[in-house]
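Hi Prof. W.,

I finally got the Biotin/lipoyl-binding protein prediction working! I wasn't sure whether to trim anything, so I left the full sequence exactly as given:
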Amino acid sequence: MQYFKVTVNGKVYEVSVEEVVQGNAGATAAPSASPIAPTPSAPTPAPAAAPASPAMGAGEKPLPAPLGGTILQINVQPGEKVKKGQVLLTLEALKMENEIVAPEDATIGQIFVKPKDAVNTGDPLLSLRS
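And this is what came out:
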């Protein structure tokens, strides 16, 4: 006789199977399936810690991503002076290109992303100095 564990709809059963001898083909064994306690699964790993916010210099403030997406293009460099409304970078979200513009006249501090980076809503894209 052989024993197997079979899972049906999430419930584990222990089943015994008896070999049928050719001369005894008409005889069948009574089913003996009984539920058994589920085998404990491997423990799930703890979620990874959220990445730390990038360090910014004094007087710098972050420009957060207005929505999640992928960075397509960066149009500025650190230290560059920008005017209010100037396109700083392009973010693709939901198959649409969104231009991220300067909210005020400022100087670019640090750039925290690069093309093809995936960002979430609120992630800092770059820092601005007034």
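The mean pLDDT is 82. Does that look reasonable to you?

Thanks,
D.
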